[in-house]
Design brief:
Elements lengths: L1 E7 L2 H9 L4 E9 L8 H4 L7 E8 L6 H10 L8 E2 L2 E2 L5 E5 L2 H17 L9 E4 L4 E2 L7 H5 L6
Parallel strand pairs: 6-7
Antiparallel strand pairs: 1-3, 1-6, 2-3, 2-8, 4-5
Helix pairs in contact: 3-4
């Protein structure tokens, strides 16, 4: 089993979408990339901690490879928006791939470059690629939020 970590706006829809993929065995929402230890949702929402809302995936590379996860990530949100997704704005909603090793970094950079050069988007891709840092699991009421509320993923 391996880990992958992505930020693509509000983590509820991102988590729901990735949970649908065969080979993703678990997904948890949380915060990464900031300066504050053990941040709360309220603190992250101030846009002063530097954290992004992220989804940490546990996946089986025998059933789904990292490249497929990165391609799904780029397909499920607008990677050209800087520090926002739809109506949500602030650094906590930034588009970011946190890489766990050099192999992940190479795959993420290659796909980023490929999509940026493809002409598919009218603006440059704003997605950051950063080394993984401490994953702070979000409060339990955020975990599988849409599934527990009967909501659907609209991203």
């Amino acid at each position: 089993m391996k880990k992958a970590t992505f930020g693509a706006g509000c983590f509820w829809g991102v988590e729901a979408r990735f949970r649908e993929l065969d080979g993703v065995d678990d997904a948890a929402v949380g915060y990464m990339g900031g300066e504050l230890e053990s941040p709360t949702y309220e603190q992250v929402c101030t846009d002063r901690t530097g954290h992004a809302e992220v989804v940490e995936l546990i996946f089986d590379p025998q059933r789904i490879d990292y490249e497929r996860l990165v391609r799904e990530f780029f397909a499920l949100h607008d990677p050209t928006q800087l520090n926002r997704q739809g109506p949500d704005f602030g650094r906590q909603y930034r588009s970011v791939i946190f890489v766990h090793d050099d192999e992940q970094r190479q795959v993420a950079e290659r796909i980023h470059r490929e999509l940026d050069e493809s002409g598919r988007f009218t603006r440059p891709i704003a997605t950051a690629i950063e080394p993984v840092s401490t994953f702070w699991r979000a409060e339990e009421y955020h975990q599988q939020y849409l599934a527990r509320r009967g909501g659907t993923c609209t991203i």
